[in-house]
Amino acid sequence: MHNSTSQSLADFIQASPTPFHAARSLAERLQAAGYQQLNERDEWNLTAGGRYYVLRNQSSLIAFSLGQPGALERGIRLIGAHTDSPCLRVKPQPELNRQGLWQLGVEVYGGALLAPWFDRDLSLAGRVTARNAQGQLLNLLVDFQRPIAIIPSLAIHLNRDVNSGFAVNPQTDLPPVLAHSIEPGRDLRALLASELQGRHPEHGPLTVLDYELSFYDTQAPAVVGLDGDFLAAARLDNLLSCHAGLEALLASDGEQACLLVCTDHEEVGSSSCCGADGPFLEDVLRRLIPDDQQRIRTIQRSVLVSADNAHGIHPNYADRHDGNHGPQLNAGPVIKINNNQRYATTSETAALFRHLCQQAEVPVQTFVVRSDMGCGSTIGPITSSRLGVRTVDIGAPTFAMHSIRELAGVKDVEYLQKVLTAFLNSTQV
Q: Is residue 157 part of an annotated ligand binding site?
């Protein structure tokens, strides 16, 4: 790739096939930059100007820099994103032996575009909970990396009307093919144990007790287009924002109190112990600022930038946008507005973000959904309503959102990172 920012994002996406891997990738970058890991089960002894991060469920992460003396009292600059993406998750007892082939039953996670999952080179990754020979329970991450599965399409000769519309049945149409079932007793747990022992021999023999596994596309991210204008990749929603928030935090000047929160389960409503509708962020803020009144004062002086991809105006489907609100790729981040509170943007927070874009010399756009269409949502309204923090919903414009492979503008990756860095360094919130 010709662009270092796009290459860094591509490397991050490649290393992050699941929310567990994304959180680990973020943690590794933070650790390398001098951030100290905190354990929620321990007492915290925070030092002035310290930089820390904490994981919950191995799939959500909060990182924060305390800034210079008095920075917390002036308010926190928060960036929020999410680590999960729509995909196919493996069922608890998934083994299927049909027509001489071994398949795994899957459940659709989130609002996935299903048609693009057919005829792709798929691999498998996630978290496995196993027991070692000493009886200890271990949470281990697994990633087969190589293509081990595929969901073949039915030939057009056997479904002549397929191009007139094909309703995918998730139960019957989506189980991937992994192998011939000639070998008796093929078992996913045994396969996982073998894979883990090959990569982690230090743990000795393992018995797999349970897992959270996702299929993913093995095709690497790529800069595409005649002039290299676009980045095509899996999970741009919302690893693009996680990466931009991380890069902004690492590039910030350390003067202000800054916090990056990347939570799991946004694609299914955020209601979990580690989701935006759970207590993770509030628990961390209580430990940062134990005094209730001081914490409220700080939150009221703070601003959250909720970063989640926006819908770029598709040239083949321009009528799906409001005529005055069609964001273009490579034309800057998008302020997302919805008067029914599907986005948390207000005139005050939109103006602040526009001001930051002007200062950073970054173009900015606006998205409002068509009045006759429903509107998606983000962690913005959830976090804003739980904390009472002023919030602006923004994101890089993309095509094919929730597909197995999405498309963004190369320039927008840089624009978003640049304005988020300006936000973290700003004295005006």
A: yes
